[in-house]
Structure prediction request, 333 residues.
Amino acid sequence: MIRRRQPHRIGLVLGGGAARGWAHIGAIRALQDAGIRPDVVCGTSIGALIGAVYANGDLDWLEEWVARLTWQTVVRLLDLRFSGGLLGGRKVIQVFADRFNGCEIRDLKMPFAAVATELDSGREIWMQDGRVVDAVRASIAIPGIFTPVLHDGAWLVDGGLANPVPVSVARGMRADCVIAIDLNNDILNGRDLGGMVADTPIPLPATEPGGDALAETSADAPPPVALRKNGKPWPRWLAPESDRATGTGDVRVSPPPSARVPSMLSSIAQSIDIMQVRITRSRLAGEPADILIQPRLGGMGIFDFHRAAPAIEEGRAAVETMMPAIKARLGME
Prediction:
């Protein structure tokens, strides 16, 4: 039987990191297996999305959904546009909007907060009321990638610009023991600039009329060639490379860098990674967590949403490695 020597209000902090965020699922599972349930949860970007799903009691659904994602599915969920960001985010957020079904943050099963950044002022915004899907959509608005969100008269973008691992938010929610998950610890240890991150196929391939945007294809099948409506292929900078499109490979180890000139998306992704790492280290130095969990995800790009299985496993492994420290901090026997 697990006993605590003293009561703790546990805060779970889920950091940003785009597709690397699937590691949060494995981390939460490992905590649950150890009998640890947070009292509050907060997150930035993908961490806000997963935190909201978890607070809504839908983690099983999310894990099943991401397990079915293939490269082709991810492509179909992306809606290309050139106003405010490359992606509108409408299709992917609709999947979660349908699941939340108009749920308000106050109606979630545990206290929750999402972090966004006010574009004009740079202020950090803690979103603790209103519709869950609106808070999540604002928090995931990666600058240049997803379009900003207008909220209460201000344009909001990704919370990672201000607070990638929002320990301070958990403290503000009266958590006296904060378990934080940082997804960006080793992502600058070598990068494949020509891989999926660089050349993620943003345009939507042609689909049959009335086709299901979430229709699945075999994960083992080779990725199709994305063609424009005129039958010609998209430019190379927008086309995937087969070695990363299959979703194979170790998320813990980055592939060797490519000698090719980085593409536009590669430059954006790499710049976002650098920014996230620098800001994360600065914020955590001044606002440390009681327990910091850092999965090794250097080999996973920000658009590798189809590589959920290895990311989830790495998230679980990272928590299990830290479990003795977690139990000692909580006074668990």
